[in-house]
Amino acid sequence: MVSTEQILNKRKRVSKKNKKAWRKHTEIKDVEKFLEAKLREERTGGNPTDKTNKDLFYIDKSDIFQTPKSKLASMKCHSDLQIDTRVAPVVGRVGPSKRKKKKKKKSQQDVAMTTESMSTNRKTGSVYDIWGSGDQKKDQKELDPCLPPPVQPPAIYKTSDTKLKAVELPHPGTSYNPTFTDHQDLLQAALDVEEKREKDKAKATRDAAPPIQITEEEYIKEMSIGLNQAESESEGESENEANEEEECRKSVTVRKTRVQRNREKAEKLKVEEAAALRESKQHLQQINRIKAIKKEIRKEEKEMEIKTNARQEKKAINETRPGKYGPGKFMGSEPDFLLPEEVSSSLRQLVTPANNLQDRFTSLQKRNMLEVRKKVMPHRKYKLKHVEKWRKKLPEEIDELVKMKRKKKKIKLSE
């Protein structure tokens, strides 16, 4: 007879063809237990059987029985020694605190030191600036400590983008008794400004588009476009058919023969050889013309120097040029000049055409401290509306106006 243990322990014959069947019918519990134990050991610091006594045990040298002060303070037995907030404190004599007294003493000492320094200066006879001695901030605090501290302006405050001076020196030709060369230079500058203005005017008129002149034939041709549509459609269809035939011819590919391919290959080789010969000749020519190349390099260097100088000059001009901080453009003031007949040799007879207030205003605009503004003249925002009074009209006119109003109302209601 076969026992039950033998039946249970009997191997099951199962197919393990696929992965799914393999996972289903294989027992891997012992492997999983081993891996779990290994991971636990790694988490807890390794297997304790492999470690030494030093790694497993240590001597505790900390003061276990000493309690900190914070714990002693919070003990219930010391609560009677603490201040009870429910009991009002004993108030003594009200007076200034010790800190205030110390501060007052210090200020008195400083005053005494200053009086001593002044007396020593008087004895020695040394001269000093009353308003400039010491820092202004310290003096203000000593005089009145209740004053708020002075506002420190930023580093960019009171700075301008341009390098122009607040007051520019006038042209030497504008003096009351100028030299001949200075006066001629001033007149030349004024003439250049006038010539530039005239050139700009001429350019504006020249660049303007001329009036379009259309002849009768062009007018008839333009107006008759689209009248003969049948002829234009037939012409368009014939052109489309011709284009389609050409495209069909191009799309048909003809196979090349071996002779044609060999001929094309030989022609390609000839072209490559010619290009190589041309390059070799150019290299030889460059070797022979070293002197000419050096001259070209020198010429390019000179041109580069001229360009850099011009760029630096332009940069210097831009540093003094006024920027655009508004819709307006800074036009600048025209140079003030006097004709040779008007120049006087004395200050009494000198005529001053310039206005100092206008000069200061333009200087502020030039130094980017004020935006360029347009002079706003007095004007009306809306047009005046003229209304004729009813009482000044005749009775016939009044009747006509009433009829017109009635008609307008009827039209509105009908809509």
Defining key terms:
about 425 residues, mainly alpha, about 55% helix
Overview of this structure, please?
- The chain has 415 residues and is an all-alpha fold.
- The chain contains 14 helices and no strands.
- The longest helix has 31 residues, at 258-288.
- 1% of the residues are buried.
Q: Which secondary structure elements does this structure contain, and how are they paired or packed?
A:
Blueprint: H1 4-8, H2 19-25, H3 29-43, H4 53-56, H5 69-73, H6 98-124, H7 136-143, H8 180-207, H9 216-223, H10 229-251, H11 258-288, H12 290-320, H13 356-366, H14 395-414
Main sheet summary:
none
Could you list the spans in which at least 5 consecutive residues all have pLDDT below 50?
101-106, 121-126
- Helix count equals 14
What sequence of helices (H) and strands (E) makes up the elements? HHHHHHHHHHHHHH
The Cα radius of gyration reads 54 Å
| Separation, N- and C-terminal Cα atoms | 116 Å
Q: What is the structure about, briefly put?
A:
This protein has helices at residues 4-8, 19-25, 29-43, 53-56, 69-73, 98-124, 136-143, 180-207, 216-223, 229-251, 258-288, 290-320, 356-366, 395-414. With 415 residues, the chain is mostly helical.
